Amino acid sequence: xxxxxxxxxxxxxxxxxxxxxxxxxxxxxxxxxxxxxxxxxxxxxxxxxxxxxxxxxxxxxxxxxxxxxxxxxxxxxxxxxxxxx
Length: 85
Known about the structure:
Elements: E1 2-10, H1 14-18, H2 21-31, E2 37-40, E3 46-53, H3 56-64, H4 67-70, E4 74-82
Antiparallel strand pairs: 1-3, 1-4, 2-3
């Protein structure tokens, strides 16, 4: 398994974000992924999620099904393979 980091910054659409947060959290928790950890930045401008996946394609598929992506509330995002020491 490879480890990935998903970093994202939100659009300035507070109502739309507020209506999507619970489904975003539930989506990630329901996956029960190895090495999952996630949460928002303290200023609530975005967040960071770490998780394990077989490959980049599978990790990308997980990201593409995130309710934040589906509801178009993310302004910028990065998905990177991570090699912690």
